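Input (structure):
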């Protein structure tokens, strides 16, 4: 068979392959030359790529190295050397410096929701084929009995245990956490692992130690190394630390399928990394980090554990097997837990992962006529290799129906300019002025205008939160939620989405500038647009002012959209379809007309008894007399009138007071808050079966 048909286009060059095999076999070039009856110069020419041996010589090389001719020709595998994988612990610093844990791991909470946000964001940033979504699969797996023993054996747990025991003796936070984890494992003999697989991602490409995706994740801290044409969600290089932070043992195993060959191969690049505090074992001090891999044979890295190309049996034993050959990476978190304390059972952890993915990435999972989905996310839970909770695909339309409807309409080109029906989506443009970078542009140059897209639609009847604007850029991960200020009283519940930068689906200079500007305004958590060191040091003066103006324009645009709409609703009543209505008139006798109070924020919930809890934040116009308001709660039932229900409690705040069922606001007060709780014994129907309308007329006989 011709060599070309065996080797293929991605085969590693013969010289680099032979050089590595000689190192692995502890054989010098001179020794190989003697075995082959060739000159050392001939072997050197092969190594440097200036020449390549004939086929009969390759057969001799295969015999010397203890392999077959096919392996030499295809160079798809390394020659077996009998070098077993092992743990390599970094020696302590010679200057006496010590780290009692990875500081990057403390940048975020060890929370499953934070893990899902950061890990999935990293996967989206490494999307490989732009025509297809990234597939993210979270597999929670509980092991005990023989399954646990087999996994710990494959992990070389006996070699790790002395390091854990010594590291757990310290008084620092990490040491105390390790001590508790070891005690729980010994007592319960149960371990939870969480594997995060992504497909259609770049994979951990690049060399073992120098620049590349692999080194940025496995060898370094605070190295973002994002190659996403400015579209990356992350920028600090901190997000990967959440993988280790959500392991009770600070231990993560990795298996990557590469989008670009390394050493002539793409499948099964495996490495493990452990983060411990400084500790001593057997009189030797260790800095803390350790790697699980094959001992390196390069002189400058002698003995360091490097990645290796694992066989299928090893991948199964380490629970690192992947379902197909698409590029991407599998991260296995050993001892996965939720430090928030919100979850304990497998079901609770499973549900939280689903909710978290839906909360942060619902928009990335929606496609339309103009754009395909960016993400497909699923969660599965196993016990000892058997399905415990079946695979659950995260469906954005079931978790966030109104928001999903808004984005779907935008992607399909089905938005309107004014709402006239409950299933419509109105679109408006919101300008963002991007401040010039320092050292560019003229002095006092206002900057470049970027038009963000604001989408607004009526809220769904089951929405627990509404009257909000969900903001995003880049790969459509939720960055923050804004509560529009100064909404008019009587505003029906709505949901809104703000698309900025590349989230608009557009290209152009203004889009790229806006994307970079907003990313610079985000902290490591990427959860708001605000003052950051990067923003103030990179952009000219006025950058923060431009952000505040953008926020104000968003509020004004929302007020304009909800203030002019008349919506024809169909179907039954919805919970809190209209939270508040104002009915404040002028006094008899023709006193001057006054402008109406407006609502800054509305909050409502139903407690376990069925009572409505309503909190109203009011902005009031200047008035010479007190505002005397008499809130009335009514049920908007399916038929007939709106029966009033009694207040169980009506409470004012520091700026107003409740007296005899009225809310009194003194002259000159511009903002007030009052709260009310309805009496469930006076409800004509169950709370969830009707809307609650709160009218706020002036009190009979009261001044206004």
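Output (sequence):
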């Amino acid at each position: 068979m011709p060599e070309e048909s065996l080797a293929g286009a991605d085969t590693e060059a013969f010289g680099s392959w032979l050089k590595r095999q000689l190192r692995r076999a502890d054989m010098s070039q001179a020794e190989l030359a003697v075995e082959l009856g060739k000159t050392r110069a001939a072997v050197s020419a092969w190594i440097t790529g200036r020449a390549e041996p004939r086929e009969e010589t390759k057969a001799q090389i295969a015999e010397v190295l203890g392999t077959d001719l096919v392996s030499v020709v295809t160079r798809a595998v390394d020659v077996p050397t009998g070098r077993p994988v092992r743990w390599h612990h970094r020696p302590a610093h010679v200057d006496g410096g010590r780290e009692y844990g990875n500081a990057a791991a403390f940048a975020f909470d060890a929370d499953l929701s934070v893990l899902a946000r950061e890990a999935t964001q990293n996967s989206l940033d490494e999307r490989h084929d732009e025509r297809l979504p990234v597939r993210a699969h979270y597999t929670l797996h509980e092991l005990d009995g023989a399954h646990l023993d087999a996994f710990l054996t494959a992990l070389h747990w006996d070699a790790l245990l002395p390091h854990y025991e010594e590291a757990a003796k310290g008084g620092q936070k990490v040491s105390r956490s390790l001590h508790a984890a070891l005690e729980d494992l010994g007592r319960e003999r149960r371990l939870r692992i969480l594997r995060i697989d992504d497909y259609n991602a770049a994979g951990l490409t690049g060399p073992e130690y120098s620049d590349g995706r692999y080194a940025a994740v496995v060898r370094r801290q605070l190295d973002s190394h994002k190659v996403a044409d400015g579209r990356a969600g992350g920028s600090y290089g901190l997000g990967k630390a959440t993988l280790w932070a959500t392991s009770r043992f600070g231990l993560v195993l990795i298996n990557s399928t590469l989008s670009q060959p390394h050493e002539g191969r793409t499948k099964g690049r495996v490495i493990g990394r452990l983060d411990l505090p400084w500790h001593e074992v057997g009189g030797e001090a260790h800095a803390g980090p350790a790697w699980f891999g094959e001992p390196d044979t390069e002189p400058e890295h002698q003995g360091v554990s490097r990645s290796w190309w694992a066989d299928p049996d090893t991948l199964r034993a380490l629970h690192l097997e992947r379902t197909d050959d698409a590029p991407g990476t599998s991260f296995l978190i050993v001892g996965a837990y939720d430090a928030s304390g919100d979850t304990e059972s497998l079901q609770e952890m499973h549900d939280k992962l689903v909710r978290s993915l839906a909360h942060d990435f619902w928009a990335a999972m929606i496609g339309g006529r103009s754009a395909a989905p960016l993400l497909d996310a699923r969660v599965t839970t196993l016990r000892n290799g058997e399905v415990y909770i079946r695979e659950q695909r995260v469906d954005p339309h079931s978790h966030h129906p109104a928001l999903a409807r808004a984005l779907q309409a935008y992607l399909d080109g089905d938005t309107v300019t004014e709402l006239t029906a409950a299933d419509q989506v109105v679109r408006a443009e919101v300008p963002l002025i991007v401040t010039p970078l320092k050292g560019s542009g003229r002095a006092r140059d206002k900057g470049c205008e970027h038009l963000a897209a604001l989408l607004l639609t009526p809220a769904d009847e089951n929405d627990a939160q509404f009257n909000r604007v969900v903001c995003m850029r880049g790969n459509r991960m939720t960055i923050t939620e804004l509560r529009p200020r100064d909404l008019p009283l009587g505003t029906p519940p709505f949901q809104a989405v703000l698309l900025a930068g590349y989230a608009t689906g557009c290209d152009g200079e203004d889009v790229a500038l806006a994307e970079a500007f907003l990313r610079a305004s985000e902290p490591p958590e990427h959860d708001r647009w605000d003052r950051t060191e990067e923003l103030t040091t990179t952009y000219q003066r006025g950058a923060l002012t431009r952000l505040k103006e953008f926020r104000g324009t968003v509020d004004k645009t929302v007020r304009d959209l909800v203030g002019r709409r008349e919506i024809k609703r169909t179907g039954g009543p919805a919970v809190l379809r209209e939270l508040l209505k104002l009915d404040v008139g002028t006094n008899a006798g023709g006193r001057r007309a006054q402008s109406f109070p407006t609502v800054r924020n509305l909050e409502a919930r139903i407690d376990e008894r069925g009572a409505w809890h309503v909190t109203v934040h009011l902005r009031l116009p200047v008035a010479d007399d007190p505002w005397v308001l008499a809130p009335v709660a009514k049920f908007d039932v399916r038929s007939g009138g709106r029966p009033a229900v009694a207040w169980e409690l009506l409470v004012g705040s520091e700026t107003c007071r409740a007296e005899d069922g009225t809310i009194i606001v003194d002259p000159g007060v511009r903002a007030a808050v009052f709260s009310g709780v309805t009496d469930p014994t006076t409800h004509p129907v169950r709370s969830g079966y009707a809307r609650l309308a709160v009218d706020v007329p002036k009190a009979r006989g009261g001044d206004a």
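Notes: The CA atoms of residues 181 and 410 lie 48 Å apart. The two ends are 97 Å apart (CA to CA).
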